[in-house]
Amino acid sequence: MRGHTGGMKKLIVTAFAAALVAGLTACGGDAGETLRVGTLSDSRPNAYQENGQFTGFDNELLKDIAAKEGLKLEFVSTDFSALLGSVANGRFDIGSSAIAQTDERKKTVAFSDPYNYQSLGIEAKATAGISDENSLAGKRIGVVQGTVSDTWLAANAPKAQAVRFPNDAAALSALKSSAIDGAVFDQVSAEDYASKNPELKVTKAITTSIPHGYAVRKGNTELLGKLNDGIKKAVADGTWAKVHQQFEPNIPVPADFKTK
Question: Tens digits of per-residue pLDDT, 48-57?
Answer without folding.
Answer: 999 999 999 9
